[in-house]
Amino acid sequence: MAKIEFDYQDGFTHKMKGNPKMYVPYVRGGGFFNGEYKGDSQLIIEGIMQNSEYDIDKWMSKQERALANAFRSMIEEEVYWPAAWVRFMTPEFERVTLPTYFLKSKKLPAALGYLIGYLSRSAQKKRQHQQGTGRLTVPEMKIKMHRALGSLSVFLGNNNYLMGSKVCSCDASIYGFLSLACQGDWRHEVTDVLLEYPNLTAYVERMRKEFWPEFQYIFF
User: Fold this and answer.
1) Please, how many CA atoms are within 13 Å of residue 143, restricted to the half-sphere of its CB?
2) Which residues share a beta bridge with 219?
3) What's the rounded Cα separation, in Å, for the pair 137 and 127?
4) Any alpha helices (H) in the chain, and if so which ranges?
5) Which residues on neighbouring strands pair with residue 27, listed in sequence order?
6) 27-64: per-residue pLDDT in tens?
7) For the residues 62-75, what does the mean pLDDT come to?
8) 176-189 pLDDT tens trace
9) Do the beta carbons of residue 128 and residue 83 sit within 8 Å?
10) Which of 60, 100, 182, 203 is the most exposed place for a label (fewest CB within 10 A)?
């Protein structure tokens, strides 16, 4: 979105080397962060935008930035976590997540893929419980999803982007959170809530085509 060139490395290449948070994404170099490693997607975005050349939010007022950040935080809390729960804590883990994330690579023996997959599931279960989503029932998750997505749908309306006709950094975050719920082969009544908001699914597909056309997801 900011037209920054980057070199993507998969987990078999970077092996979490130098990762300050021990989760992805993390970055290093490219004229940012004094060449040091930086973790956490939101901290990475904010750090990059300290360079005014890449500040795609500079057109926004303080009030607009505050509102956009409020929506980003809400969607992370009430959409990202339930979507991650679907991928790791339901039968969709064995059906889709395990073969997609851990068993397709030729660089990883199947037995090791299974081991890493189930270790990752165990870690996700712990995080879900600590964050709170893992303590909810399915109907309670759906209530929270409807509340957040309904608010976002009303606010977005027919706009191309969150804050109107211009893209902002929170569009990237919200696209990422929403895509977990509506792109790929995962199906569950919790994430299917998003499909009840056509302007949001259209927003996700529009963002993908404009900024990440190389991502050829299967769209519900």
Assistant:
1) 6
2) 183
3) 16
4) 11-14, 41-48, 62-75, 81-89, 92, 110-131, 138-156, 169-182, 198-211
5) 38
6) 887 677 777 888 778 888 888 888 888 899 999 999 99
7) 97
8) 999 999 988 999 99
9) no
10) 100
For 139-160, b/e burial (b = at least 16 CB within 10 A) is eebbebbbebbeebbeebeeeb
The pair of three-digit structure tokens given for residue 126, joined into one six-digit string: 């712990």
pLDDT given at position 12: 66
Structure tokens at 51: 């360079």
Give every CB contact of residue 188 below 8 A, 6+ residues apart in sequence. Answer: 86, 90, 92
CA distances from 130 to 25, 39, 149 (A): 21, 21, 23
Indicate whether 175 pLDDT > 90.
yes
Q: Quick check: 110 and 102 in contact, CB under 8 A?
A: no
In this structure, which amino acid lies at residue 111? Answer: A
Closest CA to 48 of 78, 28, 22: 28
Tokens of 160: 């191309």
- SS3 of 106, please? coil
Integer Cα distance of 205 and 219 in angstroms: 8
The CA distances from residue 209 to 102, 110, 191, in Å, are 27, 33, 22
Tokens representing residue 53 in the block? 């050349």
pLDDT at 30: 66
